[in-house]
Each structure stands twice: as structure tokens, then as C-alpha cells.
Design a protein that fits this description.
Blueprint (H helix, E strand, L loop, with lengths): L1 H21 L4 H4 L4 H6 L6 E2 L1 H4 L1 E8 L1 H22 L6 E5 L3 E5 L6 H8 L5 E5 L6 E6 L1 H26 L5 E5 L3 E7 L4 H9 L4 E5 L5 H4 L5 E2 L3 H7 L8 E9 L6 E9 L4 E2 L3 E8 L5 E7 L1 H13 L5 E5 L2 E4 L11 E4 L5 H13 L6 E9 L1 H54 L3 E2 L1 H30 L4 H33 L3 H34 L8
Parallel strand pairs: 1-20, 11-17
Antiparallel strand pairs: 2-8, 2-19, 3-4, 4-6, 5-6, 7-8, 9-13, 9-16, 10-12, 11-12, 14-15, 15-18, 16-17
Helix pairs in contact: 1-13, 1-16, 5-7, 7-12, 13-14, 13-16, 14-15, 14-16, 15-16
């Protein structure tokens, strides 16, 4: 009895643990529990996947070429600062094409000096040195271009994950697909448009100076209707000073609620970027208007103090994704490493802006190439049909086992119920995501749950036909079927692990239930049913076995 007692205790422990872990998955019952019990048992159970509770499925493509252009633009700014520091007079430093940097100068004697300076930038190789005495052209190296594109994908993945974590989506899926695509699945999202905008927004924060000297010469209107930006840009084409651009600030008329745009002439040179931010929080102004308060890191704070000190009484534009949010006049040197973004925000818009600033800017724009929204009604229907399929399959198996194996079939059905209970408990304990293919995996587990018992029972029948007693026949049947059962389960387990490692989304959901079902089936078939047979054999001498 000692051996049976130990296995029986293990069986009871597994059943109790499975029930405890399953309770949070059944919220109506979980909510009725007293508070002290809720602190003892787990608070999370099975999470429904995108296809069962609804949500959004996005496939996005990263604009790698734009990522290269952004990296070269930053190098141009760095080159400009280096030329100023070394007091090398040049006419212009600009990006030409996608990955070239062109430096023009009047004095040909400066050519050697500029070439020596560019040697500090090994990511570039000279492509045009002898063609012109007053111009030098460098090309971004191919290896560096590949590195930028690959790191752009990885950085975009991390940034999207950070934004989703702060948005509060349970069990999101964010993973790379192919060379430059990202798959995002957000189950249970109640505001798909807001989540989509939050993910897609580049959030490239820049601080630029307004060109107030040249703006009056262009005779820009005080404001234009929303949608008239392209027409205004066409009108001023060819009139813009070198190194300037037109950007727009958004505005809303309080009485009518109509949106309008305010054009500004802005210098292209970026004074400071958002990568030096350490925090961004929503605050409330004196007129109860929300705004975003930003805190710079030590390096950014020092740079911001220097910039504001050098540009007192001038206007600085706070630019996010090429849209001006505010353009205040710098009244004095700003110390303390803090700044504000004000505008016509709602509280939700201010919160979303703070989220994307804290999570960091995307390294390049994203283009949504697939956008699917799954409604909760479809998920509810899938769950109901999945439960019906499970009950129908289970009923057929139960009836077959009782008819074919009689009392031993009842024991096999007990193992089947135990198998399902342990599987649901294991999914709850792992806080796994249950998908529609996962339900299919559970249905498959029902068949596998009795498959092992069929092998064992047939071996027991052979032992009984050879004239052995019930106890010896049962022991011999389990011993002879052991290797066959383990072999079949291990090979299936290898397939399940491969599906989990290399599959995506729903395939992983199927693989999880399959792998768990295999392990639990081994336990219930080799230990669960054997314990019941041993209890019958030890309590009384069984002369005949109903099998």
C-alpha cells in the first residue's frame, strides 16, 4: 500500500492544484470568493487570444530607406558642428540623395583640411574628390547602411513593445516577420483606432529655431484651412532660403471647432532631439489645460540651457513628427533641464503623447500593410462552437470506451476527465493565451487521452488470454505498453516543440496545448489509471477483470 499511497497522494495533489489554478479563469465564481482567499490563490488564469476575445492584428513595414536618411541627416548636423568648432569656413553641408553628404566651399585650399576632418567619420567613404576643387562628396558605406537597417527593425520592435506596455494591453504579441515587417496582435483592445495611432506615430521630437528674419519676406498667411498645406508649399516653392523649411502648427477655433493650420518658416538645423529625454508627464496648466512636461537627462539639460541662453528673445519651435506643437519666445536662459509642450490637447491626447515620448521615438516611419479588427462577437461564437466540439468529441470517446472496455473503459474515461482538468489547470498556471487552434489542441488531447489506455488495455487482454491472474496481467500490460507509449509521446512532443519555436501566433497556441497535453497524458495514463487498478487489486482479490 505504501507505493499506491504515495502515487494516490500525488494524484490528489495534482487535482487540487489544477482546481486552484483554474478558479481565476472562471471570473463569476472567482468574484464571489472572500478577500482572504483571493490573496492566497493566483489572481490570473487563462487569457483569451485575439481570435477569441477580439482585438486588432497589424502587419507593419518599416521604412528602412528613411531610417538611412535620418542617420545621414544626423551626421550632417554633427559635421556642421565640427566645422564650426574647428573654424573651417564652408558654404554648405547637406545630404544629397539618400546616403550622400556634400560639402561645398569657396577656397580650394580648404579641401585637404576638410578631407582630414572627414576621416573621423569612418562610416563614410569618399566618392567624388577630384571632380571639383570646391566640392567633396561622401557616400555612406554599404556595411553601415545594412547595420542601420537591421538595427532600425530591432529598435522599432523595442519601442512598440514599450508603448504597448504603457498602454496596458494584456498578452500582446509583437514580433518580427521577414526582413522588414513587424506583426502586432493586441487582444481585447476596446479602442482600436487609438491603439493603432499610438503604435504608428513616429514621435520624432525636435527643437528648431524659427527664421523670423526671412518669414516676413515670404508674406505667409496668418492661418490656412486644414488641408491647404500642399497648396501653400507649392506657392512658396523656389522662394525658401537655403536651409529653411515650412512647418505647420495645428489649431482649433473655439467657437466652431474647426481645425486650421499656422505656417512657420523654420530652420532645418535641429538644435536638440528627443533622445535626450528622461521623462515625460502630463500636467495641468493654470486654465485647467493639459500639457506635457518633459525632463531632460544631464547632457540634454546642459545643451538645452546653452541653446536657450544663446537665443534669448528668439522663438524656438517644438516639433513632433514635422508638426509644430508650440513656438514660444525664449525669455531667458532655461535651467533645470525641463521644458513643456503645450497645445490644444485633450487629456487623452496628452497622455498618449507622454507615452510615446517616454517610450522613445521610432527610428523610422511605419506603414501599415495589413489591418484586421476582430470583433468580440466572433470570438464568443468561436468559444461556444469550441466548447460544443469538445463536449461532442468527449461524449463519443466516453461512450466508445465504456461499450468496448466496460469497467476498464470507465477507468479510462476517468483518466480522460483528469487529463482535461490538469490541462486547463496547467494553462491557467502558466497564464497561457488560449486561441482557437488551442481549443483544437484540447480536442486533439481528448483522443490522445484514451489512446495510451487502449494500448495498455490490449496488452492486459493478451496477458489474461495467456492465463495470468488479474494482478500479474495488469502489471504486465503496463510494463509492455510503457516503451511504446513513451516513444509515441516523445516523437509528438518533438513536433510540438518545433511548432512552438518556429510558429507564430495561433500556431504557438496549438503547440502549447499539444505539448502540455502530451506530458499530462503520460501522467494520467501511467500513474492515474494504474493507481485505480492497484487499489482494486490490493483491497480484494479480483478473480475477473471487466475489460
Amino acid at each position: 500500500m505504501k507505493k499506491v499511497g504515495g502515487r494516490l497522494a500525488l494524484l490528489v495533489l495534482v487535482v487540487v492544484a489544477s482546481l486552484i489554478f483554474f478558479i481565476p479563469s472562471y471570473q463569476p465564481f472567482y468574484q464571489t470568493l472572500p478577500g482572504w482567499m483571493k490573496t492566497v490563490i493566483p489572481s490570473k488564469g487563462i487569457t483569451l487570444g485575439l481570435d477569441l476575445q477580439g482585438g486588432i492584428h497589424l502587419v507593419m513595414e518599416v521604412d528602412e530607406d528613411r531610417a538611412v536618411e535620418i542617420a545621414v541627416d544626423r551626421s550632417v548636423v554633427s559635421l556642421q558642428d565640427t566645422l564650426v568648432d574647428k573654424k573651417i569656413p564652408v558654404e554648405s553641408v547637406a545630404r544629397t540623395g539618400q546616403s550622400q553628404v556634400t560639402i561645398q566651399f569657396q577656397n580650394p585650399d580648404l579641401k585637404a583640411q576638410v578631407q582630414k576632418m572627414i576621416s573621423d567619420y569612418p562610416i563614410f567613404s569618399e566618392t567624388e574628390a577630384a571632380g571639383s576643387a570646391n566640392k567633396l562628396v561622401w557616400e555612406l558605406r554599404e556595411s553601415e547602411s545594412k547595420r542601420i537597417k537591421d538595427s532600425t527593425i530591432n529598435q522599432a520592435l523595442e519601442t512598440i513593445r514599450n508603448r504597448i506596455d504603457q498602454f496596458g494591453v494584456a498578452e500582446p504579441i509583437v514580433q518580427r516577420q521577414g526582413l522588414k515587417q513587424i506583426v502586432v496582435q493586441l487582444p481585447g483592445v476596446k479602442e482600436p483606432k487609438r491603439a493603432r495611432d499610438l503604435i504608428k506615430e513616429t514621435a520624432l521630437l525636435e527643437f528648431k529655431m524659427l527664421d523670423e528674419d526671412n518669414q516676413p519676406k515670404l508674406d505667409l498667411p496668418a492661418s490656412i484651412p486644414k488641408g491647404g498645406e500642399a497648396e501653400l508649399l507649392k506657392q512658396v516653392e523656389g522662394k525658401l532660403p537655403v536651409g529653411d523649411e515650412i512647418l505647420f502648427e495645428r489649431g482649433v477655433q473655439k467657437d466652431t471647432g474647426r481645425e486650421y493650420r499656422v505656417p512657420f518658416l523654420v530652420k532645418k538645423r535641429v538644435m536638440l532631439t528627443g533622445d535626450v529625454l528622461s521623462d515625460a508627464q502630463v500636467s495641468i496648466g493654470q486654465f485647467n489645460d493639459p500639457y506635457v512636461s518633459m525632463t531632460f537627462d544631464s547632457k540634454g539639460g546642459q545643451e538645452f540651457e546653452r541653446i536657450t541662453g544663446d537665443n534669448i528673445k528668439k522663438r524656438m519651435a517644438v516639433v513632433l513628427d514635422n508638426t509644430i506643437y508650440s513656438a514660444p519666445v525664449i525669455q531667458d536662459r532655461i535651467t533645470g533641464g525641463r521644458a513643456q509642450i503645450t497645445g490644444t490637447f485633450s487629456m487623452q491626447e496628452a497622455n498618449d503623447l507622454a507615452i510615446v515620448l517616454r517610450a522613445g521615438a521610432l527610428p523610422a516611419p511605419l506603414k501599415i500593410i495589413q489591418d484586421l479588427t476582430v470583433g468580440p462577437s466572433l470570438g464568443k461564437d468561436s468559444i461556444e462552437k469550441g466548447i460544443q466540439a469538445t463536449l461532442f468529441a468527449g461524449a463519443l470517446v466516453v461512450v466508445f470506451m465504456i461499450v468496448y472496455y466496460r469497467l476498464s473503459g470507465v477507468i479510462a474515461d476517468f483518466a480522460l476527465m483528469l487529463n482535461l482538468l490538469c490541462l486547463i489547470g496547467a494553462l491557467s498556471a502558466l497564464n497561457a493565451t488560449l486561441t482557437l487552434p488551442g481549443i483544437a489542441g484540447i480536442v486533439l488531447t481528448i483522443g490522445m487521452g484514451v489512446d495510451s489506455n487502449v494500448l495498455i488495455f490490449e496488452r492486459i487482454r493478451e496477458e489474461l488470454r495467456s492465463g495470468k491472474g488479474v494482478r500479474l496481467a495488469v502489471n504486465g500490460g503496463y510494463d509492455k505498453a510503457l516503451l511504446t507509449i513513451v516513444d509515441s509521446h516523445v516523437t509528438t512532443l518533438i513536433t510540438g516543440v518545433a511548432l512552438f519555436l518556429f510558429g507564430t501566433g495561433p500556431i504557438k497556441g496549438f503547440a502549447v496545448t499539444l505539448c502540455l497535453g502530451i506530458g499530462i497524458n503520460l501522467f494520467t495514463a501511467l500513474i492515474g489509471t494504474k493507481v485505480i487498478f492497484d487499489l482494486f487489486n490490493q483491497r480484494q482479490k479480483v478473480e475477473h477483470l471487466s475489460i
